[in-house]
Amino acid sequence: MLRARTRLPAGLAGAALLAVAGLGACSADKSFALVTVLSAHGEFSRVTQFWVTVKNDSNVDQLEYPKAPSPLRFNETEGHTFSVSFDASLTGLLEIGIKAVGLNEQNVPNSSLGYGDGSVAIDPAHTVKLTILIRPGASPPDAGMPQDAAAVDRVSTDAGANRDAALMCEPTAPSATCGAGSTCIVCQKNVVAGMCTKAGGKTTGELCDKNEDCVAGTQCFEFGCTVGGKTLKTCMQFCKDDRVCGAGARCATNVPCGAQASGFKLCSQPCDPRGAATTGCAAGLHCFIFPGEIPDCDCATATRTSAEGTSCRDALDCQPGLLCVSSKNVQTCRRICRLDAPDCTAGRMCEKLENPNYTTFGACLLP
C-alpha cells in the first residue's frame, strides 16, 4: 500500500501518498526559498490569506498565498509552507514579511490578524529555508506591506530588474513556473508546498530514490512496502485530467500532504492485474483493480495470502491476480480475466461481475 493510509480496493478513492523529502539545486536561472509559517503563540483559525512582501536590497515584490482566499488554520507546531522563487543572480539578504489577513470578530474580510517577518542569506546553489512566526494582533511596518487587497499586485510586481517571485509552482506544467530542467513537488513535511527542484531522467512508474531522479511533471513517491530492506519508491505523474495520462491510465489518485488535501492528482500506472499481476509495475509492486475499474500498481499487503478457490472476506484477503467473488452465497478468491480476451483454465468461463459493475475485467468461474 502507499504509505500514510491504506489503499482499499472498493468504495474509496485513490490512495494517500507520502512525498519523498529532499531538495537539490534548482534551475540555473532561479533560486528558491522554502518559507514555513507558524503562530508565535495560540491558534489562528480565521486567516484566509497571507500577504507577503519579499525584499532584496531595492527589489520588492508583493504576493498572495494562496492566490484564492481559503481557510488557513495554524498554530505553534502545525503551519503552512510555500516557496518563493527569485532570480539566481541575487545575493545578500532575502527579507520576507507576512501579514495574515482574514475575518475579524465582526466578520469583515481582509482584516489584519497578525504579522511576522524574518530574513535569510541567499545561497544560489541551494534552497534556503526560513520559518516565520506570526504574532497575533501585530501590524506590519508601513513601508512595503499592502494595507488592503487592492494594494496587492496579484500577479507579482517587477522591481525593474527582471526579477520575479512566485509562491506556488504548477506540477502539471513545471517548465512554465520552474524553468527548463526542473520539476515541481507539492508536499514537504506533511504540508502543501509547491517547490521547484531539478528534474532527472526517470519516467513515471520507474523506481526512484529522490525527487531529483524523476522527469519534469513527476515526483518520487514512497510506498509502504520494502524489497531487500529498501522502501519502494516510484516516479508518478501529476495530472489535471485523463488526457495527460496516456493510454490505459486515469487521473484518479488524490495527493494529500499529511492531514491536508493538496488539491493535486496523479495518473494511475497502466498494468495487468491478471496472472502474477506484475506486468507494468516496478519490481516489488503488483497490479490491483481500484474503484472505477482502474488497474494500478501498489504493495501486496500481508493479508493477501488466500489462494485461488479458498474463502475470503474481501479482495484484501486474496493473492495478487485474484478477486474475492461472491457466487451462490459463497465468497472465494478467483482468477481475474478479461471479458474481451478470456484466458481461464479449462472448464471455467470468464464471467462478468455485477457488484461492482465491471466492463473490462471478470472472474474465472465454473459455468
Description:
- It is a single chain.
- Helices cover 1% and strands 43% of the residues.
- With 367 residues, the chain is mainly beta.
- The strands form five sheets. The chain has a seven-stranded mixed beta sheet with strand order 4-3-6-7-8-2-5, with no helix packed on it. A five-stranded antiparallel beta sheet has the order 1-11-12-14-13, with no helix packed on it. It has a four-stranded antiparallel beta sheet with strand order 17-18-20-19, with no helix packed on it.
- A hairpin with a 2-residue loop joins strand 11 and strand 12.
- The N terminus is likely disordered.
Number of strands: 20
Strand content: 35-45%
Alpha-beta classification? mainly beta
Question: Could you tell me the radius of gyration in angstroms?
Answer: 24 Å
What does the average pLDDT come to?
79
Reading the helices and strands in chain order gives EEEEEEEEHEEEEEEEEEEEE
Tally of separate helices:
1
Biggest sheet, open or closed, and with what strands and sense?
Answer: 7 strands, mixed
Q: What helical percentage do the residues reach?
A: under 10%
Q: Report how far the terminal alpha carbons are from each other.
A: 34 Å
Shape: elongated
**Which segments are poorly predicted (pLDDT under 50) over 5 or more consecutive residues?**
1-28, 142-167
Biggest β-sheet: strands ordered side by side in the sheet: 4-3-6-7-8-2-5
Keywords:
367 residues, mainly beta, seven-stranded mixed β-sheet, five-stranded antiparallel β-sheet, 1 helix, 20 strands, elongated
